[in-house]
Amino acid sequence: MSGSDPRFSFRSAAPHTCLVSLFAADSDRISRLSVSEQGIYFDFSKTHLTETLVLGFKQALLDHGFEQRRDDLFGGRIANPTEGRAAEHSAERGEGAPESVAQAKQLHGRMRALIEAIEAGALGDIAHILHIGIGGSALGPDLLVDALGRDAGRYDVAVVSNVDGSALKEAFARFDPHKTLLVIASKTFTTTETMLNAESALSWMVEAGVEDASGRVVALTANPERAFEWGVDETRILPFSETVGGRYSLWSSIGFPAALALGWAAFEEMLEGAAAMDRHFRLAPVEHNAPILAAFVDQYYSLARGAETRAVFAYDERLRLLPFYLQQLEMESNGKSVTFSGAPLGVQSAAITWGGVGTDAQHAVFQLLHQGTRLVPVEFVAVIEPGHDLDEAHHRQLLGNCFAQGAALMAGRPHEDGAHAYAGDRPSTTILLDELDPRTLGALIAFYEQRTFANAVLLGINPFDQFGVELGKEMAKGIEAGDIQFDASTQALIDRAFG
Q1: Which residue is catalytic, options 363, 416, 470, 474?
Q2: What is the value of pTM for the model shown?
C-alpha cells in the first residue's frame, strides 16, 4: 500500500478493468480466486480483485499489525481495548488460550448435563421452548434452529426478541404453558426488553396454573448472580464468559435452545466446523484465506468504488435468516467512526448489509442490482444438496437462478433501447455449500466472524464494542420515567401517544 495511511486510497490506483476482460486476460483466475474449505466453496473470481490488489491489501494487513491482532484474539489477550477485555468466542469452539478453552469446555459440560436432565424429564413434560432474548441473544439461536431444526422433531421453538407484545402473544397462541420451557438469554440479565418479555411470559405460565412455573425457567447469562436474584435456581443458570460478546455468543450457553432442539451431537459438530474454519483463518496463506480474501473484496468496493451497501442473498430457504444475522454481526462490529486508538476513522466504515432469499428477491430488488445507478456488491449463498425430497426440478431451478444471476450481473447485455440494456461488470461472490449440516453451518458462521475481524483490522477499528446502541436506550428510559425534556418534535410524539 502507499503513503502514511496503510488504508491505501484507491483513487490513485490503476485504471479500472472490467470483469469480462479480467477473465479473458487470466486463464488461471478461477483457481487463484477461489477457496474450498470445510465443505464450502468460496468463489471470488467475479469480483475485481487482481494479484496486484491482493498484494496491496496483504501489505495493508501487515501495516495494521494484523498478525499481532490475530494472535491477541486467539491468545486471550485484550482485543477490545475500550472495554479492557479479550474477545474469546473462538475459545468456545476450542481455538483459544488453553485456560479459556478449558473454562468453555467446563461450561459446555454444565449445559450438556442440563439438556440431558431435561430430556430425561427432570423438568416435567417439555414440548415447547420459548426463548427470550434480543440482539445476539436471539439472532444466533434463531438462525441455528431455523436452518437445522425443521425436521428435528424434538421440540417446538419460538424465539421472541421484540418487546412488542404481539410477538409474545403469537408464541402464547402456539404453545401449551404446561409444556413450555422458558429460556431467558441476556448477558447482563438487565436488558429492559428481554426482562419485560420474561416477566410477561412467566406471568402467562403462572396464570395458566402451571405448578412451579419458576422451576421451568433456564437463564443464559454472564451475570449469574443477577439471574439468581431474579428467581432462577442456580442449577438452571448457564453462565458464559464476560469476554464473549453478544453477537459472537451462539457458541456459548446462548446456543442452549439450539443444542436442546437439535441434540448435543449436532451442537458439537457445529463447534467443530467453526473451529476448523478458525484454523484455516489462522494458518492459511493470505492469498488462499477465505475470510481475508472476502475482507479484501469488501474494502476494495468500499474504498475504491464507493459502494455503501453489500447485498447477501440466500438461495436456500433454510438460510433465510442469514442476512438478518449478518446485519448485526457486521454493522454492530464495524459501524464505527473512530479507529482502534480513538482517532477519527477518515474512511468509510462497514457497508450497510442487506439482502433476502432467492428466488423471491429476484422479483423484488434485482431490478436495481442489474440496471440501477448504484454499485452493490452481491453475495450469493447456496447449497448443492437440497433440504427436501420433492422433485429435483425445484432445486435445479433454484441453483440455476443463483448461478445465472451472477453471470448476468457480470456479463450484462447491450441494447440500442436503453430500457433493455444491462451494463454488466457488476461484482458478485458465490459461497456454495456441499450440504447444510451443523458442521458446515458452524464453519460458515465462523467464516463471517473472521471476515468481520479482518475488515476491522483493515479499517483500523475495534470490532468488539458497541457503544452506539446506548444513547437511544438511555433516552427510551427517559421517556418511560418522564424525566427528560426532548426536542419539540419528539415531545409532541410523546404527548400524542401517551397523553
Answers
A1: 363
A2: 0.96
Whether residue 329 contacts residue 444, with contact meaning beta carbons closer than 8 Å, is answered with no
The pLDDT value recorded for residue 5 is 52
pLDDT given at position 4: 44
The domains located in the chain, with CATH, are: 10-83+271-465 (3.40.50.10490), 97-262 (3.40.50.10490), 469-498 (no CATH)
HSE-up (13 A, CA, CB side) for residue 169: 3
- Distance between CA atoms of residues 48 and 16, nearest Å: 8
Q: Which of 332, 336, 395, 449 is catalytic?
A: 332
Is residue 363 part of the annotated active site? The answer reads yes
Alpha helices in 64-150 (DSSP H): 66-75, 89-92, 98-119, 136-148
**Mean pLDDT across 411-439:** 95
Of 16, 169, 388, 473, which residue is the catalytic one?
Answer: 473
Residue 154: CB atoms within 10 A of its CB come to 14
Whether 332 is catalytic is: yes
What is the per-residue pLDDT across 129-148, written as a single tens digit (0 to 9) for each?
999 999 999 999 999 999 99
| DSSP tag of 342 | S
- Is 268 labeled as catalytic in the residue annotation? no
